[in-house]
Amino acid sequence: xxxxxxxxxxxxxxxxxxxxxxxxxxxxxxxxxxxxxxxxxxxxxxxxxxxxxxxxxxxxxxxxxxxxxxxxxxxxxxxxxxxxxxxxxxxxxxxx
Length: 96
What we know:
flat; Rossmann fold; two-stranded parallel sheet; mainly alpha
């Protein structure tokens, strides 16, 4: 699970899902610079990625730039990185 650094999501996360079954990573998804680093943490923890659920969004007329950054840009960036990883995994599996 990825959430903002201000989130309280870390507390009890392992207890709910079990140690080694899920991790909690803090990241503001609107910051593209941290995208690769956060993705690497997830891959390093599990050695593979089977599914991506993009569930971050906001709707606020007063913050339209942040709404675009979160609802569109972050969704596209993270989805593309995930697809690149999955395609590479499939390609490597076919070569075996």
